[in-house]
Amino acid sequence: MELYAHDSNNRFRASALLLVLLFQVTGRVAGESGSYPLVVSTWPFLEAVERAWSAVNNGSSAVDAVVDGCSACEELRCDGTVGPGGSPDENGETTIDAMVMDGVTMEVGAVAAMRYIKDGIKAARLVMRHTQHTLLVGEKASAFSISMGLPGPEDLSSSESIEKWNKWKENNCQPNFWKNVVPVNSCGPYYSNDLMVVAETTCSGDDPMRTVGLRSNHFGLHSHDTISMAVIDKFGHIAVGTSTNGATFKIPGRVGDGPIAGSSAYADSDIGACGATGDGDIMMRFLPCYQVVESMRLGMDPKDAAKDAISRIARKFPDFIGAIFAVNKNGTHAGACHGWTFKYSVRSPEMHHAEVFTVLP
C-alpha cells in the first residue's frame, strides 16, 4: 500500500490510517510508555503470571484473567503461603483470604478467614457477581461458596502445615502475635495485663517473650505472603486480585490486608492499579494501594507513587516489612519496598515469557 501519496488529502488519509493501524496492533497510541494486555504480580510467581497472560491474551476479561492467575497460585501453593496447606494459625488450621476488584465498575468481592474451601479467588468472584455485598467471612463464606458450586468442605491443612505447627508448639508457641498479656503457660490461654512492664522486670532469669507473650516481627518471604496481581486486558480494562492463607501462627480469626480493597490491591481503569505484600496488619492502616492510585491520578509516575506510599508507612513503623508494585493505565510499572528485597513479575506483548524485576529496599 502506498502510504505517502502526492497530494495533501491522500497524505492526510494515509497518516490517519497509519495511526489507526498502530493503535489496533499495539493497543496504544504513539508516545505511551507501555502496552497491553499486561500482567503484573508480586513475587516470581511465573506460572501464575503465564496462566493469567494466556487467558487475557486469548480474549478473557481482566477480571477472569486475574482469577485464572491467582487460581494457579492457589493450586501450586506458591511459597506455601497461597492456597490450602500452608500458614497454620495457632490452632493448626489453614484459612483463606482473597479479593477481586473490577477497575471499570469499581465492584469488589472478597472472602476472609474462610474455612474448608480451597478456591479463595473464585469464591471472591462469586461474591462480586452474585451478591450486593463486598466481603463475606468465616464459615458463612464457606457455606455461600458451596451453595454457588465450589467444591467443599475439605480440610485445608497439609502434612507440611501440621509439621510446621507441631514444631512451633514444641518451641513454646514462639514467635507469636500477642502483646500486653500474661499466659497461663507459654502457649496460653492469655490474659490482659495492664502492668506488662512490671511483669517483664520481675521475671528474672526467664525469657520475657515466653513469659509475657510479646509479638515478634517474624514476617518474611516464607512466613507469610500474598499473590497480588493486576491485569490490563485488550480493551484497557483493569482488574486486580489477591489470595493468601495469611500470617503463619496468627491468632485464630485474624484477617490481614489481603481481602481489603485499597490495601492489598486497588484498581481504577481510568488511572491504573497497585498490588501489595508484607505485614498486612500494619499496611492496612494506611491503604497504600489506594494511596498509589490516587497519587497517580494527581500526576505522579508509578515509581514515585509507590515510593511515596511505602515511605508514609516507614515513617511511622520503621521496622515494618512490605512492598508495592504500581502500574498506570498505559502499562508503565514500578515497585518500592522496605525491610526486604522485593521481586515482581511482568508479562507484556513485547516479552516472550514473564520477566522478574528486582527492587532493593
From TrEMBL:
One of its GO terms (molecular function) is beta-aspartyl-peptidase activity. The record marks 225-226 as: Cleavage. It comes from the Eukaryota. The active site is at 226 (nucleophile). Residues 1-31 form the signal peptide. Its EC number is 3.4.19.5. Heterotetramer of two alpha and two beta chains arranged as a dimer of alpha/beta heterodimers. This is beta-aspartyl-peptidase. The lineage of its organism: Eukaryota, Viridiplantae, Streptophyta, Embryophyta, Tracheophyta.
